[in-house]
Amino acid sequence: MDGLIGATTPAAEKRAAFRGGLESGRLQRFPGAFSPLVAKLITELGFEGVYVSGAALSADLGLPDIGLTTLTEVSARGGQIASVSDLPTLIDADTGFGEPMSAARTVTVLEDLGLAGCHLEDQVNPKRCGHLDGKAVVPTGEMVQRLRAAVSARRDPNFVICARTDAAGIEGVPAAIDRAKAYADAGADLIFTEALHTPADFEQFRAAVDTPLLANMTEFGKSQLLTGEQLAGIGYNVVIYPVTTLRLAMYAVEAGLREIADAGTQAGLLDRMQHRGRLYELLRYADYNQFDSDIYNFVPRGAIR
Q: Of these residues, 194, 236, 237, 241, which one is catalytic?
């Protein structure tokens, strides 16, 4: 079947690939996928991994990113996305959905669903978007407990546990660096340095911390948008583009709906749509015919939209 229904790469191999990527010396690029279909496209285009953003998932549910989503909702969508890609999938697990014991359960659930890693943050619960003002962080010791619980629940040692610190915008970069070191000592494999402002901030973090580092290149936030080449030069290991695909999609959807409302037809939008043939190619319709002609028994015509 060659990955026709789902990914061919076992979850353990995807986790090993993620772990190897962190140690490779090459920047690992993880665009955000808000659906399994987007994850298939990320895979096809040759990125190193897939990211599932809590902000994008919340927005897709029509909710703000303030900790309203549940472990059930997040894990279900994460499992769907991970299941269609041969790339490792990293997922946003917010504050672990409760007390340290809840963070431990979160890791077991995500591991069972085929995720390659998750990140936990040091915000007070309920959290808020990392690029908004008014955030609050828990004491370092409380986050250390959260991380130790998560690490203790891990059964596959290659499942990556990433610690996100939001302290830079509240306590300053030096304090965030101190937290990062404590989180690494607690067992975190990767440090997510949220809402740094300038290349100098990223350089300061890299110079002070030995643990692999993750940069968040989200649009319209506090961080200057650095290129992959810049981040690799600084020495970062992973970059995520968490909400990019959702923003692109929603901009196009809104523009299209406005035109239909105004013009009464979508006829003028066809050159801005993914062609039916390209969608069928991404979904591998033709390969289903080889698998079972009773399931797939027609030929999509290139001229049909």
A: 194
